[in-house]
Amino acid sequence: GLGVAHSAVAHQPLQGHTGGVVGGSSSLAWLPDGSAGYVVLTNSDNGSRVLERPLVRYLYQSKVSSREILPPPAAASDGWFRVVNSRNEIFRLPEYLFNVLRLSKAADGVQLNAVVPGMGSATLLHYGNDHYADADSKNVVNNALLRDQSGEVEGFLSDTDYFERVSAFSAIAPVLSVLLALVLLDLAADLLVGGR
Where are the alpha helices (DSSP H) in the chain? Predict the structure, then answer.
């Protein structure tokens, strides 16, 4: 079924789903009470993001007030997180291996780092209630830490991707095992060919 994301644009709550391919993007969103919504289809990679803010302003028919960036909550959010709902069956294994994030507390939010160095990082600014916006696009609050009833962080929602909390071993071991398998295959190939 449709993965419904709960997010905020220009500090206004929305529900919906976004998607895209190289050269195109789409966004379906509606107000939480279901009274109004919009659909945007564009032939650019970020066209729907550019249009979100004015559309939400129109839907709420009010000016967006500036909102203070808050310090992150005191409860620990540091940890490893792996994507759960891979959207592409062809890339499920690579996503399982490499779509792992390390969250760590930063001064004004949280820092995201990919498990493989050089594959990306982001700083997320805290806007209250465990809702975060990428520091590069402060007007789109579409990241959230999800907590269980005891207050422990159990997951991380980024747009429509859900990341579950995993142990450090579970985050790193699959990548290391693939690297070890590649080294062993190389050694086996050399032995078969009569190399080294």
Answer: 47-60, 92-98, 168-193
- State the amino acid at position 41 in one-letter form: L
Residues 88, 98: Cα–Cα separation, whole Å: 14
Q: Is residue 143 within 8 Å of residue 9, measured between CB atoms?
A: no
Tokens 């209250």 map to which residue? 128
- Structure tokens, 191: 């032995």
Under DSSP, the state recorded for 68 is: P
Number of H helices, E strands in the chain: 3, 13
CA distances 102 to 147, 151, 154, 167, Å, are: 17, 19, 13, 10
d(CA 90, CA 92): 6
What are the residue ranges of helices labelled H in 20-167?
47-60, 92-98
Closest CA to 16 of 140, 170, 174: 140
Instruction: Check residue 90 and report its DSSP letter.
Output: G
| Residue range 6-53, pLDDT digits in tens | 777 766 778 888 888 877 888 888 877 777 788 888 887 666 666 777
**Pair 158, 143: CB distance under 8 Å:** yes
